[in-house]
C-alpha cells in the first residue's frame, strides 16, 4: 500500500481538480481500511479484489495528472487501462455443455492414484496438508465403489475433483511420466458438485473439498472466490470443533499411534490453521475484516510448529506461511485497521505501530538465516545460505513467499501512519511519523530488490499468488516518486521500478499454462506496469526541467 515520503508536498491549492480530503464515498482518510491505496491524505484507489491489478480511482487519476502535468489518459476511459473488468475464468457453460457429457464422471482410478502419489512425494503436501495419507484413500474408495447419486457419493466425487484441480498447483514433478491433467474439466466438475457440499452433513470430507478448491482459486488469483468459499469452510470447521485445541496429549501422539478419530481431529486442526493463514492474508490484501475472530478460537500452536521453528530445523516446513507472522497480521488489523482502531489519536496509532514493529522484528530475528528477510535494499539476499555446494541457486518457494509476506506486513503496519491527522490535515511530519513512513518505503525497496534477484526462479504455479507483493511495493514507490519527483530517492526508486516492471512486461504467454481469461489478466497487468513506469519517468523528467 503506497505511503507518503517524509519529503512530500501537497498538490497545488489552486487546482480545480485537486481531490478533497473527503473521498467520493464520503469517507475521511482516518477511516480508510488496509486494502486501499492511500497517499498524502488522498485515496488513490485500490488493488482489484478480483484480479490483483491496481485500479486508480478518478480522484487518483486526477491527482497523478496534477503531479505529472500529464492528463492525456485521465479522461480517455471510464476506467484506467489496468482495471480488468473480465471474469477471471469462464463459467462451465461457456466451454462445455453438461447435457452432452457427464463431466462429473471420475477419471480412471489408476490415474488418480498416480496424481495422489505425486502429491505425497512433493513438499507441496507438507505446505498444504489437506490430503491425509490415511483418510483420503478411504474417500477414493468410497467414490469408486458407491453407486447412484447419493449425497455421500457427490461429496466424495467433489473431493476428488477438487484434489485434482488443487494438485495442478504443485510445482514439483516427482512423476515425470504423469499425463497432463484436463484442468478445466476438473474445475467444472467441482463447480457442479459444490452445491451438494453446502447441504451435506459437516465432515472432514466436505471441509477438504471446499478448502482445496478455495486454494486452487487463490493460486489462480481469484481472491473474491476464495473469500466466499473460505467463509463456508470456516463455518464447517466451527461446527466440527476444529477451532479448539484438541489437547496436548493427542497433539503429542506419533502418527502410528493415532486412531482414525484422533487422526481426523488433528487433520481438521491443520485445515483450521491453513484457513487462518489464508484469512489473515486476504484481510491484508483486501482490507476486509477477517472471517476468523481470534478471541473465539483457541490459538494454541501445534507441537510440530514449535519443532520446525527451531533454528536447527532442516526438514520440510508444514503449513503455508508462518503461524506467528499470521497472528501478528491479525493483531495489526485489530490495532490499526479495525473500526475501533480508526478512531485512535495520532499518539496511540504511532505507539501501536512501534509495538507491532517490535513484534515483527522479534519474529524476524527468530528465523534461521536462510529464511530471514533482510531489512533494507542495501542488504543483498542471503545468497550464501541459498546456494548449493556447487554454487547453484537453491530456490525454496516457502522461503521466497515468507520473505515477500514479511515485507508486505512491514509496509502495511507502517502505512497506517498516513492516517495521522498531523499529516492528513496539516501536512506536518513529526519524527515518529517520518520514521514510520521511511520504514514503509524501505521495506518496499527491500522487497523489490529481493524479488528482482530471484524472479527468474518464479514457478508458474505461484505467479498469481506472488505477483501481488511486488505490485503493492511498486505502487508504494510510485506514489513516493509522484510526491517528491525531484528528490534523490525518486531517481533510485525509478531504477528499482524499472528492474521489476521489465520483469512484469516481459512475461510471455509461453511462460505459463494460462487460460484465455488469465492471459487477458496478464496483458492488463503488463499495461498497468508500463503505464505506471511511464508516469513515474515523466514526473521525474519534469522535475528536472525536461520536456
From TrEMBL:
<dbReference type="GO" id="GO:0005634">
    <property type="term" value="C:nucleus"/>
</dbReference>
<dbReference type="InterPro" id="IPR050987">
    <property type="entry name" value="AtrR-like"/>
</dbReference>
<feature type="compositionally biased region" description="Polar residues">
    <location>
        <begin position="75"/>
        <end position="87"/>
    </location>
</feature>
<dbReference type="Pfam" id="PF04082">
    <property type="entry name" value="Fungal_trans"/>
</dbReference>
<feature type="domain" description="Xylanolytic transcriptional activator regulatory">
    <location>
        <begin position="226"/>
        <end position="308"/>
    </location>
</feature>
<feature type="compositionally biased region" description="Polar residues">
    <location>
        <begin position="1"/>
        <end position="12"/>
    </location>
</feature>
<feature type="transmembrane region" description="Helical">
    <location>
        <begin position="462"/>
        <end position="483"/>
    </location>
</feature>
<dbReference type="GO" id="GO:0008270">
    <property type="term" value="F:zinc ion binding"/>
</dbReference>
<keyword id="KW-0472">Membrane</keyword>
<keyword id="KW-0539">Nucleus</keyword>
<keyword id="KW-0804">Transcription</keyword>
<feature type="region of interest" description="Disordered">
    <location>
        <begin position="1"/>
        <end position="29"/>
    </location>
</feature>
<feature type="region of interest" description="Disordered">
    <location>
        <begin position="68"/>
        <end position="87"/>
    </location>
</feature>
<keyword id="KW-0812">Transmembrane</keyword>
<keyword id="KW-0238">DNA-binding</keyword>
<keyword id="KW-1133">Transmembrane helix</keyword>
<dbReference type="GO" id="GO:0003700">
    <property type="term" value="F:DNA-binding transcription factor activity"/>
</dbReference>
<dbReference type="GO" id="GO:0006351">
    <property type="term" value="P:DNA-templated transcription"/>
</dbReference>
<keyword id="KW-0805">Transcription regulation</keyword>
<protein>
    <recommendedName>
        <fullName>Xylanolytic transcriptional activator regulatory domain-containing protein</fullName>
    </recommendedName>
</protein>
<dbReference type="GO" id="GO:0003677">
    <property type="term" value="F:DNA binding"/>
</dbReference>
<dbReference type="InterPro" id="IPR007219">
    <property type="entry name" value="XnlR_reg_dom"/>
</dbReference>
